[in-house]
């Protein structure tokens, strides 16, 4: 595949198109294993918090990996059940009175997302300020650290995957940590500390790095939990992964649920479907932008294709009995940080969820949550490094302030509300910058008379109206003003009106106004077509 622009062609790198090369598989298979380990407790925790069957969370993870991963144009994004939808799902199941009826909403939401992708609604992702996206990533890192600390010390009152400040157990992100420190399980602490040491030091030894550190963490965690059983360090049942065990093929088939199509006329179903489609699409686009930011190869994912892929995933999930899904930044970040190069890692993690559900659920149920918490703690640290804050500070206040506001807002509310607040601040700085740069200002003197040259920028939009109006109003009397539009491809009609009105009225102040290359009307500049 080539991307052509004008007469130039930019060939994609082999890593983007050749999935099953030895070099890529060497990275993608271990990364898929890491994502599987991260996704497993999150899928279960989100299903539990949503008031849905545990199997529905695992099923959504499988579909997110296999179906969405196959259809998506993103190489590193990972889809699955998302914490941002738990409240919507819980309330919807309660209002609709049946999980089967709720599944119809998921099915319809998937169809709506496909429509959004086809009408190219994904282009709104291009308008997310970079500082806000980076702030969102850092905020997710801080939330991961704060939310996983209780699990790391053996206090599992809050469900795995929660990202909101106010928790269902009446605590919040900070009070939950304080409460956890008063209810420490020392067996869990030992497992967490050993797991963290492995995550930090194991990859530094080249010969050992061939085996993924998270796999070693899980094996060591199972062994330590087994050693601690029967003594004062023993873990409780709720401190382990808890996957539903399937006893037979018939029992496995019985876990799937079909949506109740007979309720298609229920108004509440359509309201829920539209809500899920909008929220899931926004979270997906935000996650996609964030993943592209941290992609080492700096690939750009097609947003409209992603909406179609997510829609197909939700359509299938609703049809089979799974939860609604989005692209999820935590799993996607774990994928990137583990060194993934192509979508093979995403698909592999989905297949692992399916295989392990069918083949070895008993073994998986021996994994302590505390060792998985250690894996997520390292992911959180990589997203919120101190060096990131210093880097954003050096970019200037117009980047640092939206970045910091987004972090605080996301941590103290939730992902969408926090990003919305960050967007508002980011847009304020964008508008302020645009309003300050509509022209170049130069003063020359000819005898006793001053001439002020205003050379307008290439594009002068409505946002520049206030700045130009204020500048012209403040010019002193008895001067010559030259307004030069020779460099301008477009001048907004409102700005043109201000310029022409100023020229007509300037004589009252003894000001001579000269217009150079200022047309009466401008057409909006057309974008160059990019052939794919």
TrEMBL record:
Bilayer-spanning residue ranges: 29-48, 54-71, 78-96, 102-119, 126-146, 184-202, 209-228, 269-291, 312-334, 346-364, 371-394, 400-431
Gene Ontology cellular-component annotations: membrane
Keywords recorded for this protein, A-Z: Membrane, Transmembrane, Transmembrane helix
Record carries keyword Ligase: no
Occurrences of domain SLC26A/SulP transporter (ranges): 25-400
GO biological process: transmembrane transport
InterPro entries per record: SLC26A/SulP_dom, SLC26A/SulP_fam
Principal location class: membrane
Membrane topology field: Multi-pass membrane protein
Locations listed in the record: Membrane
Pfam families documented for this protein: Sulfate_transp
Protein name per UniProt: SulP family inorganic anion transporter
